[in-house]
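Homework help thread (please don't just give me the answer)

Our assignment gives two proteins as sequence + structure token strings and asks us to describe the second one. The first is just a warm-up. Here they are:
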Amino acid sequence: MSNEIIDLQSRLAFQEDAIQELNLTVCQLQNQLNTLQLAIRELHKQMQNLAPPDGTGTSATEIPPHY
């Protein structure tokens, strides 16, 4: 009986350690995800500022006037 309790205690300690490591990993991944989402939002804003408004400018399929 005593060996079973010791075995259960060691398993519990291992599981607690594994859960703590997994929690740290999840927190790191969430921070990276937040950083990447912010970067995508900034890039999206920059792309919107670079694009000409609809109906103005030339598109890639239009023939220049000198042809």
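The one we have to describe:
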Amino acid sequence: MELKGIHHVSAITANAQKNYHFYTDVLGMRLVKKTVNQDDTSMYHLFYADSIGRPGTDLTFFEIPRAGTTYPGTSSISGTSLRVPDDKALDYWLKRLTEKKVDHQGIKQQGRHKTIPFQDPEGQRLTLNSDQHNEGVEGGQVWEHSSVPSDKGIIGLGPVRLTVKDPRPTEEILTNVLTFTKTGSYPNPVPGQKDIDIFSTGQGGHGAEVHLETRDDLEKERPGRGSVHHVSFRVEDVKELEEWVERLKSNRLPNSGIVERYYFKALYFREPNGILFELSTDGPGFAADEDVERLGETLSLPPYIESQRQEIEAKLKPLETSN
């Protein structure tokens, strides 16, 4: 039982149409699934990823039109990284983000790696990470119809940053319950705060890292549009996921049990600082109900809610997508 890395990150948007424009037209990601939140079918659930939606490349969004402003703070997933092939790609992105009038902080050094911290139009906290010196979990492949050149495009999710007031309970879960080990640290850009610790699992590298930030100067985050709902970690298959259910029970961690999501099976629980973690199987994947060439073009509904299609579509605002 060893987690393979990051599976996906799910965040909140207040406007699916504008969200679609930014992540496909500006960032060049592919919409690989247009579906609904299975727990509340009145809202869209959009999945952006690499060419075929490989595990570890998915950035997803729930549309909540009335979502308020996010007030950043602790007990949060405070940053999502997107991997690009190398430092030369960052030079391309620096120019592209500037031309597209995207709020960014320029190229920064983070340990051995170069990055560009930036925000989407709703304040989603993002970072482009160069894989120039990265080793470990392989990235995906840029979609051939992307608005970004294949040698410059986003190839997957990089490290996820967690921000907490007291790091000890979260570190305990990462290392003693999950399969992460502390592999390094780097200076916190906020003066007076302790270094940010790096935890890795599986083959390691950007696709398998969690960065744990301690902030004693912040209150608990008030989430809204532009915030992250949960992070999911990769599990090989259902058999292993069943073993994780037992492991969580043995550590007295309340959990959801296995939940059917059709494109994968999932298991949810909160660590002691209140951050929502998910464990997800690698398969069956997004081609379970669509041809790879047509991913994301129409509204996909799992078989167990397909009978509700007319009712579901009546509640959704039309979303124009043109993959």
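TA reply:
I won't write it for you, but here's a hint about the kind of observation we're looking for: The two ends are 38 Å apart (CA to CA).
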